[in-house]
Amino acid sequence: MPGFELFDQREIDAVADVLRRRIVHRYSFQGVRNDIYKVEEFEGACARKFGARHALGVSSGSAALYVALKACGIGPGDEVITTPFTFIASVEAILECGAIPVLGEIDESLNLDPNCVEDLVSERTRAVMPVHMFGASADMDAFKRVCDDYGLMLFEDACQAMGATYKGRYCGSMGLWGTFSLDPYKIVTVGEGGMVLTSDQELYHRMEYYHDHGHVHDKSIDRGAERKACLGFNFRMSEIQGALGLVGLDKLDTAIGMLRSTRDRVLSEVRDLGLKTRVLPDPEGELATQIVFLLPDGESARRFQRAAKEAGFGCGILSDNTWHYARHWDTLRDGKVYSRVRCPYDCHHADHVPSYRPVEWPVTHSILERAAVFGLDIVMDDARVEALIGAIRAGAKAL
Ligand SMILES: Cc1ncc(COP(=O)(O)O)c(C=O)c1O
Predict the structure, then answer these.
(1) Which molecular function GO terms apply here (predicted)?
(2) Mutate to test the pocket of ligand 1, among 87, 134, 329 (most ligand atoms within 8 A of CB)
């Protein structure tokens, strides 16, 4: 799946061009940069491609979540409803704000189940943040309805879903904001990087200020003379990342096309086995970075996994995934942070911090323990695709 599979001379030239011009900072140096701003170009290209009014490049997907949450004023005393099946960063970003992540249950799309939101809403709930896992959109119409009913903000963690769509709209462009990760495992990578999309101009400016120490950016004056809008921090993207991102974005549709064509070939070759895949609200829009089979139960999933591995292709069972499933996050359960006051764990604004015990997500567990996953690479030769097909056949035989 990683975008670096498609790296070629274009990435080398893009980075070399930045280095040759010696301007690696996205801001300042107006006198010598000939009006060339690579991060700004990348932001503009992302906003246009994904249908948002604004895009802000930042230093990682985690930073994108954190900057966006902070700009919305999420802080101590607030709750954000999200999913127990996501990369831990989604939850860490909420905790870093001093707010409480309230983790619902997933459905067979492997995304947060919109039907669980209503029961989790309290007077402290400010927002709902579905995560488009494995490049497939959550049911955004249903989330929009429930957020409108309860007056909640709707955020999108689209870190795994750059280029995925839901009913023709791009993931990341449907909520108040949406984030992408550009880390080394993603379909577009710049090494480390992230992007926030929003169509709310005021919110965009807050993010822009916050991610750069509160700078009110103004190209007509020296950076040192710029006004301060707020206290912030440094989550800036560099020009090297911006230049790489522009090339990666240009290759995104090709990468998605290659992944989908491998998925289609594999699924058509194993159709006779009658295996169930995950149930997506808009199957047309998924990236196809993974193929997931939902097997009858946990035991048969183990047999499937063993046989697939023996046949020569790696297969995971999602309930084993220690970084993406809250059941395994003892750091979250134990509130392992280094500060003396452990907000939100023993913060006086937070009276009801969930205990995050492993038994808390029975529905999620019943789905993940029978979910067998195969990761797809963008570039897969015939032999490898055949090996995958053989592994699925072997797995199915062992059910
Ligand atoms: C769903 C999700 N959210 C957030 C992140 C964090 O992104 P990054 O690794 O760029 O910080 C990731 C990264 O894998 C992710 O998968």
Answers:
(1) glutamine-scyllo-inositol transaminase activity; pyridoxal phosphate binding
(2) 87
Q: Give the pLDDT mean for 380-399.
A: 98
- DSSP helix/strand/coil, 74: coil
Ligand 1 centroid – CA 181 distance (Å) = 5
Lowest-pLDDT range of 76-85, 168-177, 206-215, 348-357? 348-357
Burial 196-233 (b: 16+ CB within 10 A, else e): bbbbbeebbbbbbbbbbbbbebeeeeeeeebeebeebe
Question: Beta partners for 80?
Answer: 101, 127
Query: For residue 370, with 0-12 CB atoms within 10 Å meaning exposed, 13-18 middle and 19 or more buried, which class applies?
Result: buried
| Average pLDDT value for residue range 209-234 | 98
Q: What are phi and psi of 228, to 5 degrees?
A: -110, 125
249-295, pLDDT tens digit by residue?
Answer: 999 999 999 999 999 999 999 999 999 999 999 999 999 999 999 99
Cα 271 to middle of ligand 1, angstroms: 32
How many Å lie between the centroid of ligand 1 and the Cα of residue 371?
A: 21
The fold of 3-250 is Aspartate Aminotransferase; domain 2 (3.40.640)
Question: Is 124 exposed, middle or buried (CB count within 10 Å of its CB: 0-12, 13-18, 19+)?
Answer: middle
Distance of alpha carbon 281 from alpha carbon 109, whole angstroms: 7
Tell me which residues have their CB closer than 6 angstroms to ligand 1.
60-62, 86-87, 89-90, 131, 157, 159-160, 181, 183, 194
- Per-residue pLDDT of 160-181, as tens digits, reads 999 999 999 999 999 999 999 9
Distance from residue 335's CA to the centre of ligand 1 (Å): 21
60 CA to centre of ligand 1 in angstroms: 8
Chain segment 94-129, per-residue pLDDT in tens: 999 999 999 999 999 999 999 999 999 999 999 999
Q: Residue 39 corresponds to which tokens in the numbers above? A: 């991060």
Task: Report helix, strand or coil for 105.
Answer: coil
Q: Residue written as tokens 């750059």?
A: 162
Confidence of residue 39 (pLDDT cuts 50, 70, 90): very high
